[in-house]
Design goal:
The complex is a heterodimer. By secondary structure, chain A is of the alpha+beta class. Chain A is built from 17 helices and 18 strands. The termini of chain B are far apart. Classes of the chains: A alpha+beta, B mainly alpha.
């Protein structure tokens, strides 16, 4: 680089000759040199600023483009992060207490049509009717040739039907995957399970919603993906349930009953091991509710839970239990049973004349209405009402069924002395068989209140003490006497000491008053009485035993033999060891070699 | 020296580029394999659900009851009754080998429970 001298001699000399100040030349040159230096520095700074600006522009552009891309693109599931479990979001299974399947899901297909894409609508309609005979051909042709763009044809089809529809070969027929609810055991425990149907529907999927029973009561639980497909474990035992239903159906047929129901309950936990109501239905093809007549005649009606009936003499046990517990009587106290007992214009009669006096035990054993009414009068209406309330007779049962809250017991509008007397022998108060089973369980387990439940494995809740264990034992002894020498003599089951009480209630006429020849026969049993484990409540609606010379309708001839057969078959399945011989001897003795 | 460093750096860039290229393809292969496996798991689960349902359907009490009745000649199956419960005392203890005795075909009920089987 050629450096310009600050004081070039030639210019200095010529300036001196002209009389100018040579310092001005030096200042001028110095200024020029500084300008050059600052120009260079500015140039470098400009480049740096440009670079920095470009960097920021690129950075902001990158952020902007990414934001735009995120905003515009469709969200997709992160494939790598998800495990296989997350793919399945189906409704949980329902299993029995041993894990056997009661309700599960099956993948199937629905069939729909898009008429604009259809080539031969008329032929397609005819071939579809050949595959599904329940379809209406005129309607299909009208749908396919009309203005409609979308037609549902079938909600669920089988693989064979799907193949047949494939073979029609029309591009306008399409399939959508469907998850359907399957009840592999058919009509077994139909009333407990209820049923399911489709809720909101789409071509690609449809939600399955419970419509009755536990399916409805636990609908949100079953659909909750957080449960990770855990099954709903019921307290029912599939084998016992099947046995109870079989015996009950046979008994109902044999005794020409209109309907029947049975509840088998664990007395300690309140777990319902079997619950049946006949006639029943197949939850896979749930029938429509009746459009006319009494819904109580529909097979959908759960008689064990929804049906409230006057349950007759089975209620005498509650009067006796309360009187014993209050110390008003002992089992040996003699009760006046001279009849008829007249109260105002109402007369209370017994089935037979039982003489002038019976002990409290014999009032239960012989089932004396007059005796029960007199015991109830000792107790009084207020206390009777409170006692029945503590046994759960004032409210619907808290069992986990969608129908349960609607089954409110029918109570007398005012609890008069007459009501007190009639309720003591089971008339004037209507309750469901499940109410009765819970109350008997409470009395049988030593007096602790039992809450009926359909779930198993919950922490056992110790209910409040309703009656003393002493009273409970005395009542068990009375119930045993009913079987050994009373009205339920057919209930003797070898190996198991059954105790129970019969109830034969005249049915109410819809117009008022009672039928002469229509009864509801009930048998409430506890077994084994020396160490109560289970309670069975069995009802038969309008049974008649006509093998003899005259028709017999009392529970002792109808409900009791059926109940005994249920116990004979179910008790071994429940794992109860039979006890042979005298009951106080231990069955197991320590053996050593 | 400068040339050497430049050359090494260039080689390193090429090596890393090759490594990144290979990793990219490995990842994509793994993802597609994962997708395939997930689809397979889903279809196997579906199959399992169908088999579970079929097992439950074939073992429904109605059908087993009919089959037991149909094959009564061969199997002789009857409902479980109370008479089929035995007591522990009905099972004989095995004798020690040094006693020299052995059990016959029919076990001997040596210790009775006190109750009687009807």
């Amino acid at each position: 680089m050629i450096r310009t001298p600050l004081r070039p001699l030639a210019r200095i000399l010529s300036a001196r000759a002209a009389g100018e100040n040579p310092d001005a030349i030096e200042r001028d040159n110095l200024r020029a040199r500084r300008e050059a230096v600052s120009d260079a520095a500015r140039g470098r700074a400009e480049v740096r600023l440009m670079l920095l600006g470009a960097f920021f522009i690129v950075g902001f552009c990158a952020v902007g483009v990414r934001m735009a891309a995120l905003a515009v693109s469709r969200p997709i599931e992160p494939q790598i992060a998800s495990s296989g479990d997350a793919i399945i979001a189906s409704r949980g299974d329902i299993v029995d207490r041993n894990g056997r399947v009661l309700a599960t899901n099956l993948l199937t297909y629905s069939l729909y049509a898009q008429p604009p894409q259809m080539i031969e609508p008329t032929r397609v309609a005819q071939e579809l009717v050949a595959i599904f005979p329940d379809l209406d051909p005129e309607r299909l042709i009208a749908d396919f040739t009309g203005a409609r763009k979308f037609v549902w044809i079938k909600k669920k089809i089988s693989p064979e039907q799907m193949q047949a529809v494939h073979d029609i070969g029309d591009p306008g027929l399409l399939f959508g995957p469907r998850e359907m609810r399957l009840y592999p055991n058919g009509d077994l425990a139909a009333h407990v399970l209820g049923g399911a149907s489709f809720g909101r529907e789409d071509v690609a999927s449809a939600e399955v919603v419970g419509v009755a029973g536990v399916e409805k009561a636990f609908d949100s639980w079953l659909r909750d993906p957080l449960n990770d497909n855990a099954p709903l474990r019921l307290s029912l035992d599939l084998t016992v349930q099947a046995t109870v239903e079989e015996v009950l159906a046979d008994g109902m047929k044999l005794l020409k009953a209109r309907a029947a129901s049975a509840v088998l309950m664990n007395v300690h936990s309140g777990e319902i091991v079997a619950m049946a109501s006949l006639p029943d239905f197949d939850p896979n093809a749930r029938p429509a509710p009746l459009t006319s007549g009494d819904q109580g005649d529909s097979p959908l009606f759960n008689r064990a839970v929804q049906g409230v009936y006057e349950l007759g003499s089975t209620f005498k046990v509650f009067a006796a239990a309360q009187a014993l517990d209050m110390g008003l009587v002992t089992p040996e106290t003699m009760i006046d049973t001279r009849g008829p007992l007249v109260w105002g214009k109402f007369r209370i009669n017994d089935f037979h004349d039982y003489g002038a006096k019976l002990s409290v035990t014999d009032v239960i054993v012989e089932s004396s209405n007059i005796g029960a009414a007199r015991i109830a009068m000792l107790i009084g209406g207020e206390r009777q009402k409170a006692f029945l309330d503590s046994l759960g007779f004032m409210l619907p049962t808290p069992v986990e069924l969608a129908e349960a809250p609607g089954a409110r017991p029918l109570l007398p509008p005012n609890w008069s002395d007459l009501s007190t007397m009639t309720i003591s022998y089971g008339h004037g108060l209507s309750a469901s068989p499940l109410h009765l089973a819970s109350a008997y369980a409470t009395i049988a387990n030593g007096g602790r209140r039992v809450t009926p439940t359909l779930l198993t494995g919950a922490a056992p809740s110790v209910g409040e003490q309703i009656i003393s264990p002493q009273t409970s034992a005395e009542i068990m002894s009375m119930l045993r006497d009913v079987v050994t020498r009373g009205t339920a003599s057919f209930a003797e089951v070898p190996g198991y000491a059954v105790g129970g009480k019969t109830g034969t209630a005249d049915k109410l006429k819809p117009s008022g008053g009672y039928y002469e020849d229509k009864v509801l026969a009930t048998f409430a049993a506890v077994f084994p009485v020396n160490d109560p484990q289970y309670v069975l409540v069995l009802t038969l609606d309008e049974p008649v035993e006509d093998s003899g010379s005259e028709d017999r309708r009392t529970a002792g001839w109808t409900a009791v033999p059926v109940g005994a057969e249920v116990i004979r078959r179910a008790a071994p399945l429940l794992g109860l060891r039979p006890i042979w011989g005298p009951q106080d001897t231990p069955t197991l003795s320590l053996a050593r070699n | 020296m400068r040339t050497l460093i430049t050359g090494v750096a260039a080689m390193a860039v090429m090596g890393l580029a090759f490594w990144a290229y290979r990793e990219n393809y490995n990842t994509q292969t793994a993802i597609s394999e994962l997708t395939r496996l997930q689809a397979e798991i889903a279809s196997l689960r579906e199959g399992l659900a169908v088999l579970d349902a079929e097992w439950a359907y074939l073992n429904r009490p109605d059908r087993l009851r009919k089959l037991a009745a149909l094959n009564f000649d061969r199997l002789g199956l009857l409902p479980l009754t109370a008479y089929q419960f035995g007591a522990v005392t009905q099972v004989a203890y095995p004798l020690l080998p040094e006693t020299g005795f052995s059990l016959g075909l029919t076990p001997i009920d040596a210790i009775s429970s006190g109750g009687e089987l009807p």
